[in-house]
Write a structure and sequence with these properties.
The complex is a heterodimer of chains A (about 260) and B (about 650). The model of chain A has no long low-confidence stretch (mean pLDDT about 85). Chain A is α/β, with parallel strands linked by helices and about 260 residues long. Chain A has 8 helices and 10 strands. In chain A, about 40% of the residues are buried. Chain A is globular, with a radius of gyration of 18 Å. The longest helix of chain A is centred in the last third of the chain and has 17 residues. Chain B has about 650 residues and is an alpha+beta fold. Chain B contains 20 helices and 10 strands. In chain B, strands 2-3-6-7-5-8-4 form a 7-stranded mixed beta barrel. In chain B, strand 2 and strand 3 form a beta hairpin. The chains are: A alpha/beta (about 260), B alpha+beta (about 650). At the A-B interface, helix 2, strand 6 and helix 3 of A face helix 11, helix 18 and helix 19 of B.
């Protein structure tokens, strides 16, 4: 059974005054298995962010289904969705989206506080996680006091602390320099190796090359996918780059 | 560059930022109008011919100063808000290739447009409204309507001068702000990383102490004259305390709350405490401003309304009878011509003296310790509150005023103290010891001879002989004891008849070398009091309106700023698993508490000020406590209602920004 199934997702935006309709997603279908590390690639405007918002249950599709762990998101009410997001999904964003009004520790604990966990339980989860992510010493600091890489680690800790079914990452290396990006991608690899399912949206070839599978999205449809199999990261990088060239040239999907 | 480039840019940027620029324009315009109006009233020639015009002129001149000061402070405040919000755009212009001096030119044009608009519309509106306002004033004062329309040149010129200068200074300030920053800073001005506010315990405690001291003063002051002196001290202490507590005290308290892990790490406190921490950091001063302004509005309105509504009470306290006459002697030879002049005037007018009160007394200042009354001047000059006046009245006169006559021995007295019941069994006075035969619950003759502002002891002694003996005592102060004969009565005629009688009587009274004589008429004084208290009431309402508008605008800007800033928080909270309903209710409760904190604090301020103001009003002859309580309660209710309406209207704007 798949952890995440996406079937015939379609999303149409109507401009405010009713005029033009924009089709952000035409028909997207794919599935992610438990423990998988998948990346979705595409140029800006291809519909990546729309897809992610729908997967995150922050936006509803015009038609089609998202099924997570056998549960249809479309069947959930707004309040149930919030609780669902809290327990099943973890988010990592390009610009970290930490709240400046909280210390890193409080940012990380936020989902647990909202879920009504006891403080003892929070501590029990936080300590090993912070050690693993190498942020134990800066937990008391505020987002503006630490580097981008450290902020992103805190954001990852916030995503992981609820033991989510699925981590959604939106361009997680977009705001980081190459060295920090490299470290972060290695971290994602480790987290995945420990059994965490990850779905990353990116247009960085480098980032995508760390995933086990890369899905290409173009004009609101899944255009192509690549499996890493036994390829090294460098080989995978090459394959992705080739595919992107092909995409840009407007070629047909056949590989 | 094309000739009209800068004005166009200025117009378009005002338009684009109308959400923040509009209220600023409105504030400028209203300030100009209000200032012109108060100037108009001060300079108006229609009033100058009227009774009590000089009092009014003084009041309105005072009003002019208050309005002018308020306008300056207030426009600076709103303008600084505007500049903060505009910095990003100006930075962008800078990056796109406009030099600083070009940006300065845009600012010059913007200021010119703002000034032209607000001066033209403000003055125009002020001139149009001036007639209505004058009619309202005349109505309040019961004055005849003035025909004609007037635009005092001085009022227009002063308004132009004041606001012209103010706009120039604001422009200079804006240009300086922009000139000092580099484009990167300008671009980031709004996004500057918010530092976690530090808890400054010392200042927080100082604020608490200051507020406590102010409250203590307000409660502890017993005597009206002390209230007069210490009122301003108390006000300053409370203002300082309010600022310190809103800015540092709130933060210290929130930090304290955060220390308790079991309290803090729960959904509601978690979001509320951290959210409030930043809100208070950004809005502490603004909230303190709102609180002080609200308190000012409440105090000004409730006192002036009380005085105006309680005018008859005031007159009755100040003039217990329609005609009150005082003679500085109770020599029967000096009294006789006065009494016959009164009788003759009554007869001439065909009137009768009703509720006649008449008695003789001897008075001198005393200093009391326990049951001992001393005249030691060293002690007397010390503390105003302990000084009291002592009045001795013969039993004969007292018995004439009461239904059941009493009798006294040579060493017996009846005592009345106008502050609280006299608690001792004896009175030690100038080497003599009197036994208190009874304490009175009311004043003989309703206190014809004194106001309630002073503490006063009334001693009824057996006869004039006792008084004479005390009057000869060498320990009396340099002017000795003052003998007085006082007579008061009502008249069975109209107010106009009473005034006519009064003027006649004043002429008919004999001028005697031995002792001066005074006569006062409640009905004659009514006009004077009416002008004074009516003018105060009018000014109170005028300034109240001004302060309310100030409050509203500060609230509006506060909401806008927060709306912009909370947008991001909204989004993040939803992503980590709050439903938009939960986010909304969490933010709503924070906005609500931030919003109503100043009103609640203002309510507490007013409650503590109440006893002190009651005593101040006693100095102004208003001793009707329940009237003042009612006026205060009504003013507060009306203000709270208005405040809530403003909250609702501005919250809508806030949600539009935050939830966008």
């Amino acid at each position: 059974m798949y952890l995440l199934e996406v079937k015939n997702l379609r999303k149409v935006y109507t401009t405010r005054f009713g005029g033009a309709q924009v089709e952000a997603l035409r028909s997207v279908s794919f599935a992610v298995e438990k423990g998988e590390y998948a990346a979705i690639m595409g140029e800006s405007g291809a519909g990546k962010t729309t897809l992610l918002n729908i997967l995150a249950a922050l936006d509803r599709p015009t038609s089609g289904e998202v099924i997570l762990n056998g549960k249809r998101l479309s069947g959930l009410k707004e309040e149930e969705l919030a609780a669902f997001r809290r327990t099943n999904l973890g988010f990592v964003f390009q610009d970290f989206n930490l709240l400046e009004t909280f210390s890193l520790k409080d940012n990380i604990l936020l989902p647990l506080v909202l879920a009504g966990e006891s403080y003892v339980e929070m501590e029990r989860r936080l300590v090993p996680l912070a050690r693993k992510l190498g942020i134990s010493k800066i937990l008391a600091k505020f987002p503006y006091e630490v580097s981008g890489g450290e902020q992103q680690r805190a954001a990852i800790a916030r995503a992981l602390i609820t033991y989510p079914q699925l981590v959604l990452a939106d361009e997680p290396t977009g705001a980081l320099d190459s060295k920090t990006s490299e470290e972060l991608l290695r971290l994602f690899g480790e987290i995945n190796a420990a059994g965490q399912t990850i779905l990353m949206v990116t247009h960085s070839v480098k980032a995508a090359s760390h995933a086990q599978r890369v899905l290409f999205i173009k004009d609101g449809e899944i255009f192509h996918q690549l499996y890493r199999g036994s390829l090294s990261a460098a080989e995978m990088y090459e394959r992705i780059a080739d595919t992107l060239t092909l995409l840009a040239a407007g070629g047909e999907a056949n590989a | 560059m094309p000739k009209r480039f800068y004005p166009k840019l200025a117009v378009s940027s005002i338009r684009r930022h109308f959400q923040v620029y509009g209220p600023y324009l409105g504030a400028c315009t209203v300030m100009v109008s209000m200032f012109y109006l108060i100037m108009f009233l001060a300079a108006n020639s229609g009033l100058s011919g009227m009774f009590g015009a000089s009092t009014l002129k003084l009041l309105f001149t005072f009003g002019t100063v208050v309005v002018g000061l308020f306008a300056v402070i207030f426009l600076f405040y709103t303008n600084s808000f505007l500049i903060r919000r505009r910095k990003k755009e100006l930075g962008l212009f800078n990056v796109l290739g406009l030099e600083k001096r070009h940006i300065a030119r845009i600012l010059v044009w913007e200021t010119l447009l703002t000034a032209a608009f607000s001066l033209a519309v403000g003055l125009g509106g002020g001139i149009l409204l001036s007639k209505i306002l004058l009619l309202v004033l005349l109505r309040i004062l019961d004055f005849p309507v003035v025909i004609g329309f007037e635009v005092p040149e001085a009022a227009v010129l002063t308004t132009l001068k004041l606001f012209g200068t103010l706009f120039l200074v604001l422009l200079a300030y804006g240009v300086r702000q922009v000139g000092r920053a580099n484009p990167r800073e300008l671009l980031q001005a709004e996004a500057v990383g918010e530092r976690e506010p530090k808890a400054r315990w010392f200042l927080a405690l100082l604020g608490l102490a200051s507020l406590g001291a102010g409250y203590f003063l307000a409660l502890a002051i017993d005597h009206p004259l002390d209230a007069l002196v210490y009122f301003f001290v108390a006000v300053l202490l409370v203002i300082a305390g309010t600022y310190l507590l809103f800015t540092t005290g709130s933060i210290a308290l929130l930090k304290l709350l955060r220390r308790s892990k079991r309290f803090y790490y729960r959904s509601k406190p978690f979001l509320a405490v951290s959210g409030m921490l930043y809100r208070m950091k950004q809005n502490g001063v603004g909230l303190a401003n709102i609180c002080i302004l609200s308190t000012m509005v409440l105090v000004t309105l409730s006192t002036t309304v009380s005085l105006y509504v309680g005018l008859e009470d005031v007159l009755r306290t100040r003039y217990p009878r329609q005609i009150v006459l005082r003679l500085d002697s109770y020599d029967s030879e000096v009294m006789a011509p006065v009494q016959s002049a009164v009788a003759a005037t009554l007869e001439r007018h065909g009137l009768e003296a009703v509720d006649r009160v008449e008695y003789r007394f001897l008075s001198f200042p005393v200093f009391r310790v326990g049951d001992t009354f001393s005249t030691d001047r060293e002690l007397l000059s010390g503390f105003a509150g302990s000084m009291a006046s002592l009045q001795l009245t013969p039993l004969e006169d007292y018995n004439r005023l009461v239904a059941e006559p009493v009798s006294l021995e040579e060493n017996e007295v009846l005592v009345f103290y106008n502050r609280q019941p006299y608690e001792h069994a004896t009175v030690q006075l100038l080497d003599r010891t009197f036994v208190v035969k009874g304490t009175l619950t009311s004043l003989p003759g309703n206190g014809l001879s004194t106001t309630e502002a002073f503490g006063a002891y009334y001693l009824v002694v057996r006869d004039l002989g006792v008084m004479e003996e005390l009057a000869q005592h060498p320990a009396l102060p340099w002017r000795g004891a003052l003998p007085t004969y006082t007579l008061g009565f009502d008249l069975n005629t109209s107010r106009e008849g009473a005034v006519a009688f009064y003027h006649d009587l004043a002429r008919a009274l004999p001028r005697q070398e031995a002792a001066p004589v005074w006569v006062e008429s409640r009905d004659e004084a009514r006009g004077e009091f009416h002008v004074l208290y009516g003018g105060l009431f009018f000014l109170g309402a005028f300034l109240g309106t001004l302060f309310v508008m100030g409050t509203v605008l500060i609230i509006y800007y506060k909401q806008i700023t927060e709306g912009f800033e909370d947008r991001r928080r909204y989004l993040i909270l939803r992503q980590v698993g709050m439903s938009s309903l939960e986010v909304r209710s969490s933010i709503k409760s924070q906005v609500l508490s931030v919003f109503f904190l100043p009103l609640a604090a203002a309510g507490v301020h007013v409650a503590f000020a109440f006893p002190m103001i009651t005593k101040l009003l006693v100095v102004l002859n208003l001793s009707n406590r329940s009237l003042f309580a009612l006026c205060t309660a009504l003013t507060f209710a009306a203000f709270a209602l208005l405040y809530t309406l403003v909250y609702r209207a501005t919250t809508r704007v806030y949600y539009r920004l935050a939830a966008a």
